[in-house]
Structure formats: C-alpha cells, structure tokens
Amino acid sequence: MQDGSGRIVVQNLTKHFGQVAAVQNLSFNVEPGSVTGFLGPNGSGKTTTLRMLLGLVRPTSGWSTINGQPFERLGNPGRIVGGVLEAQGFHPGRTARDHLRVYAAAMGVADQRADDVLNLVGLGAAGNRAAGGFSLGMKQRLALATALLGDPQVLVLDEPANGLDPEGIAWLRSFLKAFAQSGRTVLISSHLLAEVEQTIDQVVIISRGQTMFYGPLDELRKSQQSRVIVAPADPQKLAVALQEARITNVSPTPDGKLAIVGATIQQVGDIAAQAGVALYGVHEEKADLEQLFFRLTSGQYAGQAPYGQAPPPGWGAPPQQGYAPGTPPGGYQQVPPGYAPQQGYAPGTPPGGAPQQQWQQQAQWAQPPAQEQQAWSQQPSGPLQVQPAPPPPPQDPTPPSGDQSTPGAGGGHQ
Ligand SMILES: Nc1ncnc2c1ncn2[C@@H]1O[C@H](COP(=O)(O)OP(=O)(O)OP(=O)(O)O)[C@@H](O)[C@H]1O
C-alpha cells in the first residue's frame, strides 16, 4: 500500500558493476515540502542511485521506496513520480506536443495536459516544432514537461540545470521551489553545489558512492569552520609555540603565513607575544560552502599535477569516514577559487540589461498557470526534518528483470 507521503527512502543501497562499486551502502530520506540536492563529483554514483530509485537498475543490495513502495509497485508511476534522467531520447521528427501526447496516452492523461505542461515549462510557443531541432535547454524543459504530465507528487531530476542559460536556471529555481512549497517532493542531482545552492533546502553529498553529508543545507553552513590567518615574523617559532599550547591544527599557506584552526585571534596574539614573535597581520577567515563541498568530496579523481607543481589544495586523500548530519568536518584545506554562485534574480524582476522581449518570455516561464499554482498551494506542506529511515517495507521489492532501461511513465527516462 502506498502511504501517500511523497517521501523517498533510500536504505543501504548498493550497486556494483563488475569490479566498480558505483554505490555503496547509501541511506537517506527525502521529505516532501523541500527541495533536496543530491550532490557529488562526476562518477560518484548519483545517476546510478537515481536509476535504482526509478526502477531502471536492479540494486546489488539495499532498497529504495517512494510513497512507501518500491517504484515497481507504484501502479501507474507517472502519476506519482516524474523522473528525468537524461534530456535525450525524443523522436527528432516528432513535435514537442506530439511527444507529450504519446506519453499522455500511455499514462491515461487527457491530450489537453500536453499543452498545459508545455505552457508550464515555457515551451508554449514551441509545441509545433520538432524536438530534434531543440537546444539542450529546450530539451531539458521538454523532459521536465514530460515528467509533469501525470501531475506527480514527486519529482526526481538528474542534473536539470545542465544546458540551461542563467535565465533558465533562475526559472527552474523558482519553479522547483514553488513545486516543493506546495507540499511536494523534489530530488535534484548536480555536481555543482553553487548551481543548486539557492534552490535546495536539504542536501545529500556523496563521494565514491558513499554518503559524506546528509542534512539541512543550513546545518552544513553552520559547520563552516573559521581559521585564523597570521603573518608572523618567524612562522617556525610561532608554530612551535602554538604546538606547546596544544593548538596543533596549524598549516603554512602558500604565501608564507600560518593558518590556524581551533584558536581565536586573541589566543594566537597572546601566544605570539609570549613567544616574542612579531605579527605583521592577523585575520579570521571563514570557509565557504564550496570549500566544504570540495573537502567532503575531494580525492575521487586526484589528478597528476602538471609539470611537477603541487596539486591544488583540497584534492588530497578523501575523508576516512562520512560525516553524520550536524557533525562538522574537521578543518578544511585551501582550494583554488571555485565557481561563483549563480547571480540569479528574483522571479518577477527582469534581469539587468536583458532585452525586453526576452524578459517577457522569461516572465512567462517564471509563472506557472494560475490553476497550477492554486493546485499546488492547496497541498499540505510538511516541515523539513531529517528523520531516521523507517524499517524496510513489508514486502521485498520485486526486482526488475535486469539492468535494462525501461520507459517510465514519468518521461525522459533512458
Ligand atoms: N552500466 C554501467 N556499467 C559499468 N559501470 C557503470 C555503469 N553505470 C555507471 N557505471 C560506473 O559507476 C560509477 C558511477 O557512475 P554514475 O553515472 O552513477 O556517476 P554520476 O555521479 O552520475 O556521474 P556524473 O556526474 O559524471 O554523471 C562510475 O564509475 C561509472 O563509470
């Protein structure tokens, strides 16, 4: 029996492809009423996990459920979960509208719904165009439209921002937030924290198929450790004095300063004064989220540094063990400047300098039709909580016949 909760539960999910351990013992819950980011570097197992969740790959062990049921037991799954794993696979000669109508018929949804979802994703004017001529961003929108056909309670999207321009990303952000605020469930994967940081409330970070952090994004923010950067006249002498004061997390910076974790500016100043070491500068530095993300996922593909240079800091050995939600990782390493967060703009505010015509089109994308908004806002919205996973479902999931891709009713499936 489905429990109607909209909750996704992943429990000890494991997948081996021959010698490759793509996913290892992964456990997390995704709660309705929130957008959860499923983050990890390339090859960390995100797509494999989503494919298992959507019944396209059989797990080696472990299980996952949506609404308390394995995907295979959802009956008409497209009515419950809309999944987009790859914005490909459209018949190139078929119009967007016809593509949607094929899926609508398979799901038992009225033809009119095809036009509704085309408008919803901003493709209303492109319904008669062949999908083969669509840009990557338009294909992403068409895949999302397919997933929305069944008016699902749960959305599972693999790298949905891939190929979208900044306006498209801003639109997607407002769209997913509105969807979640109506009490529905959204799980989106990305390998870029900055890309989804403004969209997600909860985060699951994986590396090498294992959970590195799982909890509210705010929890991760709170775990940002600060460090004191000091420019001493004699770094060696100060490092020894700090060591004697049991402040051991001290490392040199590339420009000859010392970075100290676990001490205040005042403590460092006092110790330097007692040791007779002059300080030419001291300040406190906060690690940003991007640095923490690097820290949590570093080492998966530690590349060879070119021409004998030192490898970029932050690409060292991976953490030995995962971090439970609320347990901050110890320290952090310097990383090269990462990607700047997307400079989005609030829905309803035209982007600076955008041509008027383009903005009008964007404004249309940013606003779901009134009836959609109303329908969503009537959904109950639950509090965002990390809850322990419930015990396994009463019956074992019926495994799919093999690792074959199956066309899912949610659309866009491989
Ligand atoms: N069908 C398959 N056969 C063999 N190995 C596979 C298969 N699918 C995935 N893998 C391997 O499993 C690991 C995880 O891949 P996966 O695609 O799940 O990662 P990902 O996090 O989605 O990566 P990306 O961000 O690059 O899409 C990789 O080492 C990949 O090569």
Question: Overview of this structure, please?
Answer:
- It comes from Actinophytocola oryzae.
- By secondary structure, this protein is of the alpha/beta class.
- Among the domains are: 8-221, P-loop containing nucleotide triphosphate hydrolases (Rossmann fold), CATH 3.40.50; 224-292, Alpha-Beta Plaits.
- 28% of the residues lie in helices and 20% in strands.
- It contains twelve helices and 13 strands.
- The strands form three sheets. The chain has a six-stranded mixed β-sheet with strand order 5-6-7-3-8-9, sandwiched between helices. The protein has a four-stranded antiparallel β-sheet with strand order 11-12-10-13, with helices on one face. The chain has a three-stranded antiparallel β-sheet with strand order 2-1-4, covered by helices on one side.
- A hairpin with a 2-residue loop joins strand 8 and strand 9 (210-216).
- The protein starts with 7 loop residues before the first strand and ends in a 37-residue tail after the last helix.
- It binds adenosine-5'-triphosphate (ATP).
- Adenosine-5'-triphosphate is lined by residues 17, 20, 22, 40, 42-48, 191.
